[in-house]
Specification:
The chain has one domain: Nucleoside Triphosphate Pyrophosphohydrolase (Alpha-Beta Complex). By secondary structure, it is mainly beta. The radius of gyration is 15 Å and the shape is globular. Strands 1, 2, 3, 4, 6, 7, 9, 10 and 11 form a 9-stranded mixed sheet that branches. Helices cover 13% and strands 43% of the residues.
């Protein structure tokens, strides 16, 4: 776990906490590789991430994950498996809940879009230093099939505090 820097998770009543935005992220696996993207727009632009985005009104998280993956990288996904939830409190007021999915079922050809430049990456070579600071704390175990719930406080790109629980 990272050291607390300036702000504490204990200052937030997580039972009463409500997100201002809800989003999804999908990790597509192919053997010993995972599909990542160089994000071009929006929150996290310039970082390496995975396909995903906002849940639209009337959409489930699963529907959003399928739609966002198609829009961002051109792949049709199936059999997405729930992996966990991410709760982000940003110092600027943004409260983001993310639902994470994994799948090995996909069809189509990768395309670069205005939002994302996709690439396959060996899991052993994931570029943690180019990703959100929280990813290294939950993603390796999620890729091995562990479910999780993570709570994070960020000030811009800087993670101030975190708490992650893993379960079967």
């Amino acid at each position: 776990m990272p050291t607390k820097k300036h702000s504490s998770l204990s200052n937030i009543d997580w039972k009463e906490w409500e997100p201002t935005e809800s989003a999804v992220i999908s990790y597509i696996l192919r053997g010993d590789e995972v599909l990542l993207i160089q994000k071009k727009t929006g929150l996290g632009a310039g970082k390496v991430n995975a396909p995903g985005g906002h849940i639209e009104k009337g959409e489930t998280a699963l529907q959003a994950a399928v739609r966002e993956t198609k829009e961002e990288v051109g792949l049709d996904t199936e059999n997405l498996q729930y992996a966990g939830e991410l709760y982000f409190q940003f110092k600027d007021g943004l409260r983001l809940k993310g639902t994470v999915f994994l799948t090995e079922s996909f069809e189509g050809n990768l395309i670069e879009t205005d939002e994302a430049d996709p690439f396959w990456c060996k899991i052993s070579e994931i570029p943690w230093d180019k990703m959100w600071e929280d990813d290294i704390h939950w993603l390796p175990r999620a890729l091995k099939g562990e479910h999780f719930r993570g709570y994070f406080i960020f000030d811009g790109d800087d993670m101030l505090d975190s708490k992650i629980s893993f379960y079967d």
